[in-house]
Design a protein that fits this description.
- There is one protein chain.
- The protein has 23 helices and 21 strands.
- The protein starts with a helix and ends in a 27-residue tail after the last helix.
């Protein structure tokens, strides 16, 4: 009984297993057939062209190969032979994968597939014609000729399709302003470079290759994907000279292969040149990284660059003017280790100054920029000081020792929430420190002093903006003194908005939040800001200073950099998430946490009281404020300094409200007034009138007031 059930069960199981196998194969066949139909439908024009080509090639092969009486015998066989060729093509071409790939990306692999398909069709014709499927047997030479006629015809169809796509893309690129793309210089012509250039044919590309550097001498002057090979790494000076002659400055230098593939000396010279000219050096992903999820457009860079996020072209600058102004001159930069200050220092060093004096109150920042200069600009004399611009005696000592001809004041406390919590330190650094630098520059007879300002100084609602506005007032007043007394020192303020990639800015914060899986925190969905890359801001700052000095622009003007259109913070966050290969609001959440003290939804570049003028500098406008008399400014700054050194935040805010129009109407200090014994004296200080001339470097430190650690 057991054996009976055993054998029967086994038999049934076998039948069921067999049936299950057949059932499993059914869906696979259906999927394959559906895919085949989808391919034919998507390429129906190409299918029609292939059918016509294979049919005509068969008919022409008979007419061209057979002559005389044999041709008369085969004439009745032309139509059946052509029809047979058509049927073979319709069957073999889809099976061979003719229509599996998009003709817009035709490559060598497609040519190989085409040859295989055409060969299989011809072999099938030769075999089937022998079975008298046509009225007369077709000789083998006819089939061979048919093959040689079919291959060019089939290939031509694909070349035409590819050409139409390239023409369409070229037309699109011509319609699109070239200036809207980022100019890049490529190094190497390897597989990564090939893929990168192919990806640029996409209509959404933001990169414009201006040339290729390749070590192979026999390729010089040739074109690789329509981009000229302009030099070798063995002679980088020639490449740089050629770019200068063309008046082309790439914003990126892209290494398409690992640095070990290139001449080390040439790469070193090229990267030094790039660093000095503010050109970003990046390396493309290797082929092994093509499947990684962080790839954006074709072959993307390894790190998110501010250029990708800015989504607008950077301004080109005239470097010959900068060489003329900075070469052979002594230059001093305060806050030289900060984001703006370090970029200022590097770019100035590329113009071969006689000496660079760098001042920073942070030991590490000063050390970092000093090491950077020693590595990339070893021939430029330099002197580094760890010092605070709040210390007037120290500032004067450094100025008298080095007697700089050009001074850039980039030292500042710039974070709105931090200065809102520390208003006294904000006043000491941004107001008192700027006064000290300006006065020292005038005392030693410098050619020019340049104050780095911010759009937050316009119609400000926070302490930081108010302090920067006072600094603008003072620099403007000093410049008007120059006009009145005909002294040679000029004073310029350069105002611009947020810079991408600076310390404590949005990019590092958002990148950190994205790498942690989110969420990204934004204060308000309507919040928007003006943005600019550090490199562009510094270039335009240098051009503004050089132009103002050389062309003697109007006294008392404030240079305002063209920041383009304001960008919504939420749009910037979403763009960064996409550049990371993720989906906003799905992979990475965005939370809105509410505005912080002193923040505004919208920033402005011009105050309501300022007249806007064209200063003749590309990418720069001029603001002409009414100004504040220098005597009143000096008196008010002395009061501010006195209150700040005694940590009286309430009085600091009151004095700022008295001096800066519009400030204080929407915000209040986040710090409780300091409880000091001399509070009565501070209230009286508000009414203090300066009748006697006070030295501009005088520091008032009341008895009992605490020493304050410098933060300038």
């Amino acid at each position: 009984m057991a054996d009976f059930y055993s054998s029967e069960t086994t038999s049934k199981i076998g039948i069921k297993a067999s049936g299950h196998s057949v059932l499993e194969s059914q869906p696979k066949i259906n999927r394959w057939f559906q895919q085949l139909l989808a391919e034919l439908k998507a390429n129906r024009r190409l299918v029609l062209g292939d059918v016509v080509s294979i049919t005509l090639s068969a008919a022409l092969a008979v007419l061209l190969t057979v002559t005389g009486s044999a041709q008369k015998q085969l004439l009745p066989a032309i139509l059946p032979f052509a029809a047979l060729a058509c049927v073979c093509g319709l069957v073999i071409f889809p099976l061979a994968g003719f229509y599996r790939r998009d003709t817009r990306s035709t490559s060598l692999r497609d040519i190989v597939v085409l040859l295989k398909g055409a060969l299989l069709t011809s072999v099938s014709l030769a075999i089937l014609s022998r079975f008298n499927l046509v009225t007369a047997s077709v000789p083998i030479p006819v089939v061979i000729v048919q093959f040689y006629l079919a291959v060019p015809a089939l290939g031509a169809l694909r070349v035409i399709a590819r050409g139409r796509e390239l023409t369409r893309q070229s037309r699109h690129l011509k319609e699109k302003e070239v200036d809207s793309r980022i100019p890049v210089l490529l190094v190497g012509t390897g597989a990564s470079c090939d893929l990168f250039l192919r990806s640029l044919r996409n209509t959404g590309s933001r990169y414009l290759p201006v040339g290729i550097i390749d070590d192979a001498r026999n390729t010089q002057g040739l074109y690789f994907h329509d981009v000229q090979i302009i030099g070798t790494l063995r002679d980088p000076e020639n490449v740089i000279e050629r770019l200068s002659h063309w008046n082309v400055l790439p914003q990126r230098l892209l290494l398409t292969e690992p640095t070990t593939h290139f001449d080390s000396d040439g790469i070193q010279k090229l990267t030094v040149w790039a660093s000095g000219h503010g050109v970003t050096v990046s390396r493309l992903h290797g082929l092994e990284d093509l499947g990684s999820p962080d790839l954006g457009e074709g072959q993307n860079m390894r790190t998110v660059d501010p250029d990708d996020i800015l989504d607008r072209p950077q301004k080109a600058v005239e470097r010959s003017l900068l060489f003329e102004v900075f070469k052979g001159r002594r230059v001093l930069v305060t806050g030289a280790g900060g984001s703006i200050g370090s970029e200022l220092t590097r770019q100035i060093a590329s113009f071969h100054p006689a000496e660079i004096v760098i001042i920073d109150n942070c030991e590490f920042n000063a050390y970092s920029i000093d090491m950077d200069l020693s590595q990339h600009f070893p021939d430029v004399p330099r002197r580094m000081y760890v010092a605070s611009i709040v210390d007037a005696d120290r500032v004067n000592s450094i100025f008298r020792q080095h007697r700089p001809e050009l001074v850039f004041n980039a030292a500042a406390l710039k974070h709105v929430p931090i200065v809102e919590l520390n208003p006294c330190e904000g006043v000491l650094t941004n107001v008192v420190g700027s006064r000290n630098v300006a006065d020292a520059a005038r005392e030693i007879g410098a050619l020019a002093m340049v104050q780095i300002s911010t759009d937050k100084a316009v119609n400000t609602t926070n302490v930081m903006g108010a302090t920067k506005r006072v600094a603008e007032f003072y620099v403007q007043a000093q410049d008007r003194i120059t006009n009145e007394t005909e002294e040679r020192t000029r004073f310029f303020s350069v105002r611009f908005g947020n810079v991408l990639g600076s310390s404590g800015s949005l990019i590092p914060l958002f990148q950190r939040q994205i790498s942690n899986g989110g969420p990204i925190t934004i204060t308000d969905p309507k919040m928007e800001r003006y943005f600019m890359t550090i490199r562009e801001a510094v270039q335009l700052t240098l051009v503004s200073a050089a132009s103002g000095l050389k062309f003697d622009t109007s006294q008392g003007e404030i240079f305002v950099l063209d920041m383009g259109k304001p960008v919504k913070i939420v749009d910037l966050a979403e763009r960064m998430i996409r550049l990371a290969g993720l989906t906003p609001h799905q992979d990475i959440k965005i939370n809105f946490i509410g505005m912080r003290p002193g923040e505004k939804l919208f920033e402005e570049l011009f105050d309501k009281s300022e007249a806007r003028a064209d200063c003749g500098i590309p990418g720069v406008s001029a603001a002409r404020p009414e100004g504040v008399p220098i005597a009143r400014l000096r008196a008010m700054i002395l009061k501010l300094e006195l209150a700040a050194r005694c940590q009286n935040g309430s009085l600091v805010n009151q004095l700022l409200r008295d001096l800066v129009p519009g400030y204080g109407t929407k915000t209040s200090c986040a710090v409780e007034p300091a409880k000091v014994g001399a509070s009565a004296a501070w209230s009286g200080a508000k009414e203090m009138t300066v009748k006697l001339p006070i030295p501009p470097h005088a520091v008032l430190r009341p008895v009992g007031a605490p020493e304050v650690l410098s933060t300038g």
